Amino acid sequence: AQRVTQPEKLLSVFKGAPVELKCNYSYSGSPELFWYVQYSRQRLQLLLRHISRESIKGFTADLNKGETSFHLKKPFAQEEDSAMYYCAPFTSGTYKYIFGTGTRLKVLA
Amino acid sequence: EAQVTQNPRYLITVTGKKLTVTCSQNMNHEYMSWYRQDPGLGLRQIYYSMNVEVTDKGDVPEGYKVSRKEKRNFPLILESPSPNQTSLYFCASSFEPYTGELFFGEGSRLTVL
Q1: Which residues pair with B37 in a beta bridge?
Q2: How far is the C-alpha of B91 from the C-alpha of B23, rounded, in Å?
Q3: A63, A37 in Cβ contact below 8 A?
């Protein structure tokens, strides 16, 4: 069965510290991978997508096909990064997005 | 302004009283989808639609219906709501889901008593 796991429900770090939000997936085929973010009182929005190899707001995500992981990283966390983060693989064969359970990131001053 | 609009944003209803949550997008997107968000369970897909008259089940379709008669609209129908359908619902759309991005509505908080 297709599954995506975000093992941490809550991650607290101090401002300026590195942060890594973990995402592991179990999928048949080759999914495309996305990270979505939900700031307080805002809509869910795309943070970054693997296919674009982009860095958004200082975040990057490395796809490790051997470990089937797509962890989100930022070298220096900022208070405005506090939000809920969702990992979302997508497979064109099924046209389904399956979101992880989410990780709440709290960046402490 | 390009957006996904859901209505109502908040609703309290009683068991068995049919209701419809509307979703409309003005971006000419072909792909539309519904999700429910529950504490500890994240976002779970209810139904999705690749285009007009083309819909398919997501992971939690039981108790829900959808229709896609027009490209811009994708209503979610609860024929006989039950308390376990109390949740926060999100509609989303995309031009091309594989390489594009999902645009989400603001959410509809539904309480079934």
Answers
A1: B43, B88
A2: 6
A3: no
Distance CA A105, CA A22 (A): 12
Token readout for B94 is 């995309």
Q: Which residue matches tokens 């129908």?
A: B77
Please write the tens of the pLDDT for every residue from B64-109: 999 999 999 999 999 999 999 999 999 999 988 777 789 999 999 9
Q: What is the CA radius of gyration of chain A?
A: 13
Contact list in B for residue A96 (CB cut-off 8 A) is 45, 48, 58-59
Q: Is A85 in the B-facing interface, judged by CB distances under 8 Å?
A: no
Q: Evaluate whether A39 touches A49 at the Cβ level (below 8 Å).
A: no
Q: Which of B49, B34, B50 is nearest to B85 (CA)?
A: B34
- Rounded-to-integer distance, Cα B28 and Cα B102, Å: 13
Is-contact B102 B94, C-beta < 8 A? yes
B90 neighbors B34 (Cβ within 8 angstroms): yes
For tokens 């983060």, what's the residue?
A: A85
pLDDT tens digits along A35-69? 999 999 899 999 998 877 777 888 999 888 787 88
Query: Any chain A CB within 8 A of the CB of B70?
Result: no
Helix (H, G, I), strand (E, B) or coil at A61: strand
Whether residue A49 and residue B59 make contact (CB cut-off 8 A), yes or no, is no
Beta bridge partners, A5, equal A24
**pLDDT value of residue B6:** 97
